[in-house]
Amino acid sequence: MRVTVVGAGYVGLVTAACFADVGNQVVCIERDPARLSALRDRAEVPFYEPGLSDLVRRNIEQGRLTLSPSIAEGLPGSQVCFIAVGTPSLPNGQADLSQVEGAATEIGRAMTGPLVVVQKSTAPVGTIPKVRALVEAELTARGASHRLGVVSNPEFLKEGSAIEDFTRGDRIVLGSDDPQAIATMRELYRPFNRNHEKIMVMDAASAELTKYAANAMLATRISFMNELARIAEAVGADIEQIRKGIGVDHRIGSHFLYAGAGYGGSCFPKDVKALAHTARELGLQAELVEAVDAVNQRQKLRLFEKIGDHYQGALAGKTFAIWGLAFKPNTDDMRDAPSLDLITALLQVGAKVRAWDPVAVDMARRLLPEHPALTFAADMRATLDGADALAVITEWHAFRSPDFTALAATLHDCVVFDGRNIWDPEFVRASGLRYYGIGRG
Ligand code: UDX
């Protein structure tokens, strides 16, 4: 099939490369000239995702994946066009649909034959009819009558395992009441739907809401555990024991029960806010969803509170080593990362920060304003030079088993703050360090 994917961001590039790899002819549209030429001329992926560079390079070299600067140039001849552009949060939590709407209009102007338009960017319920109306308005304006199918096909991939999630995900949700468009999508997804049936066909509104429901449910579990962690601390209980104790209950399950420094990333914070906003717009109050967001905002400063308590507020002039900047391991993504809140708060009270991350240091330099008290170390070990204390905020594998005796000898104040509960408190304490985790009373 000939497929166009609008947007070479996370979702777009993974979608384009995975469909190209199974033999489709895919054109990926990228408006940003620097990003476009890096991809087109050097097959350079603009973010870190395991395996994606090789996949993109192979498919470009073998001629199945091409890059184009515009829908007008890249769309003609395609049977399917994915919209995979950003839907960032507006200040009121609403999803900003301007990029989706812009793409729909350009698609209407550029399509030259029957087309299935697939909305893959996470967008609120009601976006599918909007996309249809915008494409149709352009068709009408130029007197064209090409057959148009519009399908919602939300994406459930996780950063760090995006290719695996795309090719071997739990489900493929298709939202449309157009049998012909669904048949085209079934054909396109056939290589990823071989061993057992993963395709779920539903109405567009349900498909759109499924995506928000999945992310809000997962975020709820995390905020719930973070709230419980506070209670555990107050009563002298250990959230890690509680996590195990409830996770074996099949009705609960063991995933997404990890208390920590709060959730970040491109999806949970934005989607939870957008769902709450949708509810408000409908005159409903999504009290639980609002609380999930509020608990998370507070949680992102939990480590800072613990540091402040330990030092009784006297943080000015202290130097903190920070391991981890990305919002989670195996990505350089720092959107809404708890590290940003922690570093900003430490700098505000006059502390010094030496930070390191296996892949996100460049991203951090771009996102954090230059500050004389903020430095990025060359490696994990060098982060500790001159540090009074260490805080770990991303659970990279490299941080799991440091030499605690060496840490105790290096850190002036002999104290560590474990924002992801990756260390065994007893073991750490036996090395002569003070240990603070999340919810470990
Ligand atoms: C998420 C969804 O999992 C994915 O299905 C959706 O398509 C996009 O959003 P992602 O943002 O890549 O994926 O990361 P995920 O692995 O889900 O983690 C999200 C955040 O929650 C991270 O900050 C992580 O550290 C945090 N988290 C996760 C916890 O704090 N505790 C947990 O138990 C699990």
UniProtKB/TrEMBL annotation:
The active site is at C267 (nucleophile). Pathway: Nucleotide-sugar biosynthesis; UDP-alpha-D-glucuronate biosynthesis; UDP-alpha-D-glucuronate from UDP-alpha-D-glucose: step 1/1. It is an enzyme of class 1 (oxidoreductase). Signal peptide: none annotated. It catalyses: UDP-alpha-D-glucose + 2 NAD(+) + H2O = UDP-alpha-D-glucuronate + 2 NADH + 3 H(+). Keywords: NAD, Oxidoreductase. PROSITE patterns: PROKAR_LIPOPROTEIN (PS51257). GO terms for biological process: polysaccharide biosynthetic process; UDP-glucuronate biosynthetic process. Substrate binds at F156, L157, K158, E159, K211, F256, L257, Y258, A259, G260, G264, K328. GO terms for molecular function: NAD binding; UDP-glucose 6-dehydrogenase activity. Residues 321-425 form the UDP-glucose/GDP-mannose dehydrogenase C-terminal domain. Its EC number is 1.1.1.22. NAD(+) binds at R35, T87, T122, E159, K270, R335. InterPro entries: 6-PGluconate_DH-like_C_sf (IPR008927), NAD(P)-bd_dom_sf (IPR036291), UDP-Glc/GDP-Man (IPR017476), UDP-Glc/GDP-Man_DH_C (IPR014027), UDP-Glc/GDP-Man_DH_C_sf (IPR036220), UDP-Glc/GDP-Man_DH_dimer (IPR014026), UDP-Glc/GDP-Man_DH_N (IPR001732), UDPglc_DH_bac (IPR028357). Transmembrane segments: none annotated. SUPFAM superfamilies: 6-phosphogluconate dehydrogenase C-terminal domain-like (SSF48179), NAD(P)-binding Rossmann-fold domains (SSF51735), UDP-glucose/GDP-mannose dehydrogenase C-terminal domain (SSF52413). Belongs to the UDP-glucose/GDP-mannose dehydrogenase family. NCBIfam families: NDP-sugDHase. PANTHER family: UDP-GLUCOSE 6-DEHYDROGENASE TUAD. This is UDP-glucose 6-dehydrogenase. It comes from Thiomonas bhubaneswarensis.
